[in-house]
Every structure is written in structure tokens, then in C-alpha cells.
Amino acid sequence: MTTKKKSFLGGAAILASAAVIIKVMGAFFRIPLSNIIGSLGMSYYQTGYPLYNLFLTISTAGIPVAISRMVSERQAVGRYYEAHRVFRTALLLLLVIGAVSASLLFFGAGAYAESAGIPEATMATRALAPALFFVSVMAAFRGYFQGNRNMKPTALSQVFEQVFRVGLGLTLAVVLTSKGLEYAAAGASFGAAAGGMAGLITMIIIYTLSREAFRKKIESGSQEPGASTGKILVQILMIALPITIGSSIMPLLNMIDVQIVVNRLVATGYTPEAAKELFGELTGFAQPLINLPQVLIQAVAISLVPTIAAAFKQKDMEDLSFNIQTGLRTAMIIAMPCAFGMMSLSEPIMLFLYPAEKASAISAAPLLFILAFGIIFLSGIQTLTAILQGIGKQNVPMINLMIGALVKIFCTMTLTGIPEINVKGAAIGTVATYFVTFVLNMIAVYRYTGAKFPLVQIFVRPLVSVAFMSVGAIAGHRAVMAVLGSNSLATLAGVAVGGCIYVVMIFVTKTITPEELTMLPKGDKLAKLFKKIKK
């Protein structure tokens, strides 16, 4: 077992742990917020996020990956000084990008909200602007540490970012509710700015404490400046631009949803208020739950890029193939139980999370059921995209996602206009996009690396495990519901029963072996515990 193999899963485990903490805190933010301001207020809150995410993607999607890859490649051959110059160049670039994007969002918020047919969202959209600057600068530091194969600073900054986002955002939402839903939504949005500032300060502190170690590392290697600043900037942009364009497609599609869904529903006979509420159910109630497993998968993807890049550069095809298979299998082990769990208990979960908005929760349950299926494909997309980026084929996932985007636009335009399908058409279009892109990415990875995808190990065994899990979850929910009549307790019981069955089944089906547990932090202890239980 090589160190490189251990570093990939170890780094992923660190980021995944932070992601779980972040999502738990996020639940304490979004769920109470939804109950406080309702689906109408959530439509104000959510309207600005597609545009915000589009700007954020420009600074946080491609450039940190470029930094990570370029730093990792240079350090592999002892060019530590040039690696540090990559960081400094990228930092200056992101300072400019952050300032420009924040200004554009702040001054363009009114026109954007008007065009979406939700002018009440202007303040909430504008309140997001400062976050763009802070998060953009923070992305440079994260990329540099990730290039050093050190995921802890990223994890810590993410946690502090979320603490301040949740704390201040929810506080402002509660305080400003008396002024109206527009003010409450804006207060909640401003939490993102507070979180961004806290995360940036955290990264600066960690970097300052690490400067002496970086200095010694730089002095131990070549002192040649290497490429000029201009050439480094060009290299960053050559790697980052295709990734950024590809990553911008989904936020852009979400913006299209903002423009299409409400207006399309109104055209089919819904009142503007009813259309806004349906949009709020899609984006404020169902969609956020789909993002839960994605932060875990993102941890896998971030850790994969430098590992794949190093193996590919050294032409270590055995290590490359191992990490490709392990990455995709890890994604499926995480994604499948999340997807089938949400599908099996879609309505109980919605009622459990949004008890104060019972009608909206029930209405949003079919949306959750549809979107949950897409978790599997989206998780695969993220992992395969990281692999393609690591081998220098960042153009490919961008093109594949563009093809998938055409499917999204067609489905949303067509299906949302059918009254019986209404807002579910947007959810179906999203899943169709993920499926098409996932298949195209798999073909591309096989074409450029020759890596095999053992279908039984990657897909069939996890699928068998989640089948048993789903049956147990449904049975557990119904049993407790019949005895106690409490949906909250029944939902918790269903999740607990299903979770326990899944953990057992992934070992019974050999989806995970004890030997593979040793690759995780503290994995030796986990493997020993499993062997004792098995006896």
C-alpha cells in the first residue's frame, strides 16, 4: 500500500468530516429559516443564489484546482519556490475577481430580481455581494494548502465559515422578521458575508503560522524562479477556464430555472403567488437536501485531483487505475444510500424537517423523490470530473456538461408547461442532465486512461446493500408510526434502521473489505473492530 493511496482517502476523510459538521449546522439554519419565513420568503432568499453561485464559481471552481495541480506538480520535482509563486499570482488574480464580482452583484441585484419576476428578492440578492470578495480570496489559500496535500486548513476554514454564516444569518432573519419577509430574507443572506470573512481570517491565521515551514521548504529546493509571472498566470487560466466554464453551467441553468419556472407556471394558469410558492418548494425545500451528499463527494474530488495528477505525470498507471476505481466506488458508497434513503422516506423526511409548513412539505415530497435519484449521477459526475481535471483533460467535462445542459433546457421548457407536471418538470430535467453527463464522463475517463470500471464492485454491490436498507427504512418507519403515531420518531427510527442495515450489508456484500478500512485515518483500529465483530 503506497503513501499516495493513503493520502487520497485520508484527505478525503478530513474534508468529509468537516462537511458533515457543516451540513449539520446548515440544517440548524435552513430548516428553522424555512419554518420562519415560509415558502414565499424562501423564494426571496433563494432567488439571488443562482447568480451568486455563478459569480462564485468563477473564482472558486477552476482557479483553486489549477493552484492545487500546479503546486503539486512543481513540488513533486523540488520546485518549491515556483510553487509558492503560483500561489502569490493566483492570490492577486482572485483579489481582482472577488472585487469585480461583488460589485456586479451588488449593483445589478435590482435588475436581476425584476427579470426573475420576484422584485422582492432585491435586498436578499444584494446582501450576498460582500461574500463574493471574502470567499474568492479564501479560495487561493485553500488551493495552495490542497496542493501541499494538506486538507486540514480547508476543513477548519469551512467549519468557521459555516458557524458565522448560520449564527449571524439566523439571528438577523429572526430580528428582521417584524419588518417583513424581504428584510428577513436579506438578513439571512448576509450571513454568507459574515461566514466568508470568518473563513478568510481563519485561512490567513493558519497561513501565517505555517510561513516558517513553507520558508524552510522553499529554501531546501531549487531557487530558480522558473516561469515568469505572466506565464504562470496564463497557465492558471488555461487550466482554470475550462473548469470554470463547465462548473458555471449548472449555476447558469439554475438561473434559467429562475427565469423559466415562475413565468412558465404563470403562463399555464397559476397565479404569480402560487408559482412563487412552487418555486420556493423546489429550491428552498427539496433542492437543499440533495446537496447534503455532494459536500462529501466534493471532499473525495478535491483530494483526488493532486493524487491523480501526480500518478499521471509519473506514468504510474497501476496507481492511477487504483485511485480512479477507488474514487468512483467511494462516491457510489456515499451517494446510493443517500439517494435511496430520500426516495424511500421522501414525504416523512419533508414533514419531519418542515412541520410548520405541512402543506408545502407534502407538496415538495415528490420533488425530493425525483431529485434524489439524481444524487447518484451527480456524485459520479463530480468524481469523474476531478479525474479528468487531474489528467489535464479539463475541457472534456465542460463539453459533456454543455450537452447535458441542452437536455435540461428542453425538459424544463417542455415539462414545466404541462399543468399536471408543473414544477416537477424542472426536477426531471435536472436528473436527465446528470444522467447524460455522467455517462459521457465515464466514456471519457475510459478513453483517456484505459481504467476499467468493475460494474459489480462499483455499482451492483452498493445497489444490493441499499435495496435491503430501503426495505428496512420503510418497515421501521411504518412500525413506529403504527405504534406511536409520531412522524418525527418514525422518521428517525426509519433512518436509524436503514442506516444500520446498510452498514452491515456493505460488509456482507464485500462492498468494503477490512483491508480497505486501513486506508482511512484510524483505519487500523476500525479494521480490527470489524474482525472482532465478525468473529
What does this protein structure show overall?
This protein is mainly alpha-helical and 535 residues long. It has 2 domains: 451 residues, no CATH class; 82 residues, no CATH class. The chain is 87% helix and 0% strand. The protein contains 19 helices and no strands. Helix 1 runs parallel beside helix 7 and helix 14 packs antiparallel against helix 15. The longest helix has 45 residues. The chain is globular, with a radius of gyration of 23 Å. The protein starts with a helix and ends with a helix. The N terminus is likely disordered.
Query: Number of domains in the coordinates?
Result: 2
Largest sheet: none
Portion in strands: under 5%
Shape: globular
Using DSSP, what is the number of strands?
Answer: 0
Would you kindly provide a brief summary of this structure?
By secondary structure, this protein is mainly alpha-helical. The chain has 19 helices and no strands.
Keywords, separated by commas or semicolons:
mainly alpha, 19 helices, disordered N terminus, 535 residues, globular
Give me the secondary-structure topology.
Layout: H1 3-47, H2 49-60, H3 63-76, H4 80-115, H5 122-127, H6 129-147, H7 152-176, H8 181-220, H9 229-267, H10 272-313, H11 317-344, H12 346-353, H13 358-390, H14 395-416, H15 424-449, H16 455-484, H17 487-508, H18 514-517, H19 523-534
Helix pairs in contact: 1-7, 1-8, 1-10, 2-4, 2-6, 2-9, 3-4, 3-6, 3-9, 3-10, 4-6, 4-9, 6-8, 7-8, 9-10, 9-14, 10-11, 10-13, 11-13, 11-16, 12-13, 12-17, 13-15, 14-15, 16-17
